[in-house]
Design brief:
single chain; alpha/beta; 8-stranded parallel β-barrel; 8 helices
Length: 299
């Protein structure tokens, strides 16, 4: 009933956990069996291990949160040797979320991921391109297309490009990576935001700006998913503030084939099984035999 597909790949249901909100899966084993998921996206990894940002990293905001983690991670080599083998026990598709600060970093990371049987590479192009003035790869169609094209040529796995809401027109960005061979796109990444501690009269984050996520961005994410799904023929994965089965259904109806649930995992670690039950109840009540009956029904 809840089966869906990302291109030629089948998922038992449309729920994927978003990068950076689920670790590598075992952190949630005390709440439920992660094998009930449609797929799991790994924590963001980079070729060179990162210690992350200094100072405050998380700040609560109405209906959401801001984070300035800075992609703290042990590196792709550690992921391949230590984390991925443990993730395989869940027997669900795995998206390895890959970032980098230079094109060379991305390609070296891809070379390592080519040696394991991960199902997808989710390419995080919101990382700053240190060789081009520090602007994120995903802010312009030209740079997004370039890094996507090079990674696709090198990768043995399907590449899903995670799109930023902070750059050029998101539909144009999606078309630019589709033209370079992206297997699919996922969106949206966090929205650039800022916080001020008025009592201390100082900016909260050492990096000044941070990434906003949570239900407060859901309407924005839904709009962008709708625009992208109308613009491309490749699969679309909807991300951004999903907090209920109704949010999932809305994403599917505007053209997503699957969704990623992120920030709300922190608010309610039991959210995934709750949403799965609500989705089943909805399909039974509406006499929906397969999700394909509602995917993109509102385009």
């Amino acid at each position: 009933m809840l089966e869906t597909k990302i291109g030629d790949y089948s998922l038992k249901n449309p729920l994927i956990t978003a990068s950076g909100t689920y670790g590598y899966g075992e952190e949630y084993e005390g709440f439920y069996d992660p094998s009930i998921l449609g797929a799991i996206a790994s924590k963001g990894i980079t070729y060179i291990p990162k210690k992350g940002n200094t100072g405050i990293r998380v700040w609560e905001t109405p209906a959401g949160m801001m984070n300035s983690i800075g992609l703290e991670n042990p590196g792709v080599d550690h992921f391949c040797k230590e984390e991925f083998p443990k993730m395989k026990k869940y027997k669900v598709p795995i998206l390895a979320n890959l970032g980098g600060n230079t094109l060379e970093d991305y390609l070296k990371g891809v070379d390592l991921l080519n040696e394991i049987d991960v199902d997808f590479i989710e390419l995080n192009i919101s990382c700053p391109n240190v060789k081009e003035g520090g602007l994120a790869f995903g802010l312009s169609c030209q740079s997004a297309a370039r890094v996507t094209g090079e990674v696709v040529k090198r990768a043995k796995h399907p590449v899903i490009v995670k799109l930023s809401p902070n750059g050029e027109n998101v539909a144009d960005l999606a078309k630019s990576v589709e033209a370079e061979g992206a297997y699919g796109v996922s969106l949206i990444n966090t929205v650039q935001a800022m916080a001020v501690d008025v009592d201390k009269k100082k900016i909260v984050f050492d990096n000044v700006y941070a990434g906003l996520s949570g239900p407060c961005i859901f309407p924005l994410a839904l709009r962008m998913v709708h625009q992208v799904a109308q613009a491309v023929k490749i699969p679309v994965i909807g991300i951004g503030g999903i907090a209920s089965a109704k949010d999932v259904l809305a994403m599917l109806m505007v053209g997503a084939s699957a969704v990623e649930i992120g920030t709300m995992n922190f608010h309610d670690p039991y959210l995934v099984p709750k949403i799965l039950k609500d989705l089943e109840d909805y399909c039974q009540a509406e006499k929906i035999d397969h999700l394909s009956e509602i995917i993109a029904c509102l385009q």
